Amino acid sequence: MTFKREPQVFGASITEVEFGTEGASVVFGGANTLPLYNFDAQAKHRALVGIEISDKGPDRSLPELSAFYSGAESLSDIASRACTAPGADFVSLVLESADPNGDNATSEDAAALAKEVAVALAAGGKPVVIQGTGNVDKDQELIPKVAEALQGMNVLLLSAKEENYKGIAVAAVTAYGQKIGAESSVDINLAKQLNVLIAQMGIKPGSYVMNLGAAAAGYGFEYISSTIERVKLAALSQNDDALQMPSITSVAEDAWAVKEAVVSEDDFPEWGPREERGIEMEISTAAAALAAGTDAVILRHPASVKTIADMVAALA
Amino acid sequence: MKKLFDRVFDGADEMYALAEKAIEDAVAKLGENTPLSMPNTAYHLANYLSYTKRQVTTISELKDAFEEAKTWRVREQNLSAVFRTGFGTFMAAETIEACKYAKSADPYEGNYHGHLSDAEVRELGVPLVTNDIPGFVVIYGRAPSDEEAVDIIKGYQTRGIFVFLLGEIIEQARRLDLNMGFPVRVVAVGPDIWQVAHIISFVNRAAMIFGAVQPGDRYELDEYTFWRIHAFVNVYEPVSDIVVACGGGAIAMGFPVITNDEEDMWAVPKSLIIQKTTPDFIETSLEARDIKLKITNVDIPVAFSSAFEGEIVRKADMRIDYDGSRFDSFELVRMAEAHEIEDHAIEIIGPDIDETPEGERLGVGIIADVAGKNMVKDFEPVFERNFHNFINCAEGIMHTGQRDIIRIRISKTAFDAGFRLKHIGEILYAKIMSEYESVVDKCSVKIYTRPEDLKTLRAEANAVYDTRDARLLSLTDESVDVFYNCILCQSFSPSHVCIVTPERLGLCGAVSWLDAKATNRLNPQGPCQVVTRERVVDPEIGIWEDVNENVFASSHGNLESVSLYSIMVDPMTSCGCFECICGIEPFSNGVVIVNREHIGVTPLGMTFPEMASMTGGGVQTPGFMGHGKHFIASKKFMKAEGGSLRIVWMPKALKDLVASKLNVTAKELYDIDNFSDMIGDETVAEDPEALMEFLAEKGHPALGMDPMF
Amino acid sequence: MALKGIDIFKLTPKTNCKDCGQPTCMAFAMKVAQGTVQIEKCPHMSAEALDALGEATAPPMKSFRIGARDEEYALGGETVLFRHDKTFVSKPLFAISTAPDAADTTIAHACKIDYERIGERMCVELIYLEYSGDKAAFAEAAKKVSAAGRTLVLATTDADAAKEALAATSDGKPLLNGANPSNHETFAALALEYGVALGVTADNLDALYDTVREVEKAGVKDIVLDVGAISVKDAFANAVQIRRAALKSGDHSFGYPSIVNVSALAPGDARMQTALASVFILKYGSIIVMDGMSYAQALPLYGLRQNIFTDPQKPMTVEVGIYPINGADENSLCALTVDFALTYFIVSGEIERAGVPVNLLIPDAGGYSVLTAWAAGKLSAGSIAKFIKEEDIESKIKNRNLLIPGKVAVLKGELEESLPGWKIVVAPNEAVSLVKFLKEFKAA
Known about the structure:
The structure holds three protein chains of three kinds. Chain A has helices spanning 63-68, 75-83, 107-124, 136-149, 165-175, 188-200, 221-237, 252-255, 259-262, 274-292, 302-315, and strands at 17-21, 24-28, 48-54, 90-94, 128-131, 156-160, 179-183, 208-211, 248-250, 296-299. By secondary structure, chain A is of the alpha/beta class. Chain A has a domain at 45-179 and 197-208 and 250-315: Dihydropteroate synthase-like (TIM Barrel, Alpha-Beta Barrel). The longest helix of chain A is centred in the C-terminal third of the chain and has 19 residues, at 274-292. Chain B has 21 helices and 23 strands. Chain B has a six-stranded parallel sheet, with helices on both faces. In chain B, strands 10-7-13-12 form a four-stranded mixed sheet.
């Protein structure tokens, strides 16, 4: 008697979303099985791995990271260097300088920086993701400006939230032909609601992805993984077309902000070097997010990017 | 009196003649092959492109295109001919302007804005689509005075309306040094009526960019401009035929025209409106185009934030105490017709705070009148209940209670900061307009403080409360068309869904059918969705096919069916927020109900937490069910198993709370007097044996009923 | 489909005799249905009733324990494929692999990781001892592992080596991982003889399935399925398909816990092992074997495991008490939030980021988030005042500023009444605004 296999292939599938320009674009989504379940049916596209850079530059106190970016001083040099990170499918720029609780650079200045980076990335052959400040008011002003500055580059702009999706969706997608991420906070129903509202603005599937929230491993990550799992199951097994957008998870910010990745080796000698702790935190969180079913992850350290890209390849 | 249609046709002829002359002049000066384009646009001459699909790039192409435009001018006495002629007039106007731009890239040399770039279309288009700019106005002509010209422009500016100016009003504004320009949302387009072509070009490009309207698709274009572009036109007398022709085009696009010229003018409801009182243009225009303004700030002299919700104003700090427990007081929301309400009117009838001695106690009555196309009377109490939350958010103001048992205290600090009764009106106005945006279009507030007024008005308010209560009682599951679901708790109980009906409120006790309905209307994508109940399977047990479909979908496939009136067959699940749990007591054929507050053990041998652990989490547990306290006296309470007659035990506190209503139900359904006295509680029994003894002694009807399983 | 409590009640004697320890037959039946009480506790059930129940209540996945005394660990017993459907129950155990001659170093290395996180001990539970041809050395190393208080996995396909090691260590209830299609008879016999759980491996799922059935026939009850080390893709496919067969298709022969050797899947690559271990924590690894375990790996992996194996219905809570942050002392201001672990982590993280010394006060709020706790009556002016009194905070801290979460601003007035002498300050609604708020805050 042999083991009876029951492949789980669904009638529904995840919508494909493409960003980037010809020759330098990537597609995610498209699967009709649970993520990474290539034994059920081979997925059309692999999960994507992005490398994150900040407009304030890399943390040069981390030796390995600093070595990777050594000699890259200007933002466009840093961007070009990020393009060379093995395994990176795209580069994600965080417009940290525009944060009203930080430097509060003007939207115009931040958009100009974004433009500079986008040009460098286009030369490096990588599609572009731009992350706003996370401040709803600032992003409402900033993201349309960035969308305008990067016209024709088909970039993915993160994120539109319930409070500011209207202006961002209409400006970025309708007026300037970009893609956007719909960000909700770890709740399948809120995610669905936002998707429906965005669709009501006349935004078509294929123009937006979901950002379902993020947390580092150990810090309420079960809410993230359960939300991602529930969204995928609803999209595939229930054929819920308001949840069939691919999802992207920004791991970097949360992973590098938790105590494990922040405290110094002097304070916690038995924990070992801080950089390795940050890398492992990114790796563990990203791997778990992919296992739960996200379609793309954003990581900060080139070493994490390589490991996760290798893992995705090994499972493909 | 000249007919309106003829005025349109005569005016169009004037515009066409001017265009003809402009082309001839351009050909003579520049030659036919000179390239021609508007600056900074990829849409050529957008009006021609949009109406005729023609991509005009040279003077000769313009000539050809103009020939086609001439065919749009048809003198026929019907509306579609008039509308078509209006559009033709816009093409003629665009012809005149295009010839100007053919001669010079900057024909207005900075004096007027002229053509709008694609970038400007996008910049202005986004907030128009998202409603962040509620609409735009085109003002043409000469206002009765320079001051009035500035007043109307500023009036629109403060309401967030984008302003395009044409003609003499521009000079009027300039004489008073009004700041104009794209950034301040006031654009001086040009001195003549034909520069209207630039505004129409903006509209047509917006339709192509934001509405994906294809060139030449008149139907889609009309739909888009009518539904999505909230524009309107103000024209000062005298209105010439050529302006009337342009007005015809505007009306065709769904943009109403408001004028003070009565000469040879024919009012058309919703489209061509004569308003002799020019300062009222704004109000008339907004109403004609159904433009609702966003209210964002609460205009009061003290801070307003949820952080002040829990503040207590103590006697020593109190400037005034409106005390409903001693003096006639009340709060009331009334639905009214739009025309009966002057929006944002706040009236104080009687002495204000500063006309009352410090520390005084007296009564107060607050009436908010609201109107809105989607408003229904059932929302009145929903809004009213929130007065408490709204008013409490003001620093130094304390509010408690509702209906006619309210109390409002205002602190000395708030008073010294300038807080007066009208600010309560401002708070209510701003909050009602913003929180209930989707259903309220207009709101006014009246605040009364004279004892004689309060006495009569309170009586009137009481009559309203009584009517509402009667309405609540008359609401039955059979008397409504739809139920609602509630998935508010899915964040922690992912597979649970509540079905809320008039006779069965949410198990948390906080969501009634009316609340769910209001939540749905106010936030159509929110946690409460309509559940139809058309395909009945079993009305006794409470099974409907469409209810089950909804439960399946909204539980994300976890639940297949729910019986609304049974605790044995697919009972409704629980999230964990239940006020009470009922569970079967097998020896008496009855059920035991226990509320969250009860600490002790029930005759089932289980405590509330123990029962909660097996009832929560969205799992169906036949024989056990979570529910709200007020469901106990409902006629639908486990109707399938015989109803409330099955109740054999409740904690005393809960029994006291529900006794009167439960007794009424038992009397009505089973003709039993004082039924609650037959129900055991912790004072007579905490185990099944003692309970059985008590029930036998009382002759509880459950003992004689069939076992439930 | 699990049996409903009502159905079980029908089979009870309905006498409320209390012999089972429960006050009523109904309470007993409901608890059996819930899985918190064993059906055998009722001495009066008829044989027929027990049979009927046994069939219906047989779990889709076997649950058993390995290890002994303080080092006894549960494996299996899962009922759902996704934790949101109910909960995951047996957290995966971590093992470090070692050759016998490196046992001392490995044990020392493994024992370095041993700390507590939200009430849970985090350590390398198992040592995966790999046979390398020397039976005596294998048995010797096995003894060392047992003595060090770590549970053993004996990884060998050599029956003699296994026997020698088992003879020395079987009272520690190790896992014998080594049965395969060619040796399963002897290995089944060994497992039965020494009363240990048996790991089964094969080149593919079909062979594994057949071998398991043979081992079952031989009478072995506690089985662990090795997902193999052919490739990452193959191991993952096996882990998922095995669990899915058991829980979704109800195939009892695959209803056993699994063992995943990531050290063999990504030899020498610690970072890749972290990545794979993370995947297998979510997707059905019961024992995860690593090359080693550094703090950099342990911190995320154990945190992730703790998250994923939290019951969605019973949120993680932190202990009630005073948590001084940024070197807070008796003169530092107080801030209060709930005992829900996630809230605590977020709030304490933001306070740390602000760099302002704060005494974070955690009352018992039922493990709910702020608004839920407030709505459920678990966080009220009364409960806060009671907590302040019971913890004797007024004598421990001199500062009388108390920050309360913005979402329960409504408690301010009542708190001022019930806590005379305190200045109640409403903090922001969201923790993310705390940094700015605290930096700008001027205590009264």
